[in-house]
Amino acid sequence: MDRQPVLPPLSTNSEHHFTARSGQLLALLLIAAFFSTLLHLYADYKAFLALGPGGTPSTVPGYVRTKTLSVFALRNPYLPKATTTTQRGHLRHLPARPTPRPTTRGIAPHRQVTQRASPALYQHLAAELHRLVAADPERLVLGTSCFEKHGTGLFSRSPARRTCRGEICHAHPSDGSMHMTLHPADARVVLEAGWGERHPLARGGWFEKFVPEGFVMVYAPRREEEVDVLVRIVEAGAWYVDFGYSCSSPTVAGEGVRRFGNGGMKGIETARSSTLAGRDLLEARSCS
Q1: How far apart are CA 108 and CA 217, in angstroms?
Q2: Strand partners for 170
Q3: Helix (H, G, I), strand (E, B) or coil at 169
Q4: What is the pLDDT of residues 189-199, one digit of tens each?
Q5: So what's the pLDDT on residue 24?
Q6: Where are the alpha helices (DSSP H) in 12-59?
Q7: How far apart, in Å, are the Cα atoms of 55 and each of 51, 106, 113, 181, 197?
Q8: % residues pLDDT > 70 (the chain)
Q9: pTM score above 0.90
Q10: Strands lying side by side in the sheet with 178-181
């Protein structure tokens, strides 16, 4: 019996056409996704540059650094950090800030993009910082921000808290907001009254190599009377960074708050001399 020849499977022009069309469509989708990603990154990079100078260079490597750190950013910066301490801070109460909160962006720099202060209000705020220093030049000094490397910073000459060279706060000319280090109880008061939010990296632990755990943004003033509230918050930061709170004796914290609140910046020195009662100041600062 003769064997029938085995013929190759038939292929139609329609099958070839379908395969070619599928390959072309896939290539077009990949090209579109690539250029869409490039456009998104370019727009995001331009938004990063628009935040202005800050602690991170306004360069491509600086942008990559901030995008990497954003993976670890706080998911809810309005929520105070949970703490078990019962110690009180400097602030007892703040009036509620009229809503809404401003929109903020970035990590370094971290800025407001809405509700920015007018140049006149920013100058008023800067003048208040100068006034605080003029009232107590032996304890406070102004200089270039250690955190930002730009803008004006308020420093303690003999800080009790570890911040960047004793920096208490710094102001941002681009939007009028400030960053500062606060006692945990004071940070809670500020956040709950709507005057600020935690810095995205204010997690504590390893992240303190970037910012302190109590690092908060205080929003820019929108009217003259809001500057007065911001000055109260700055004074709370000065009390915390310059005086400290963590000694076991409640008299040190409580009496310090009372005297500071009644006597202004000069009250810090009065609180030290009266409440420490002859104890060595360095020892008192280190009893955390």
Answers
A1: 12
A2: 153, 179
A3: strand
A4: 999 999 999 99
A5: 81
A6: 13-50
A7: 11, 11, 17, 16, 18
A8: 77
A9: no
A10: 140-144, 152-156, 167-171, 178-181, 215-218, 196-198
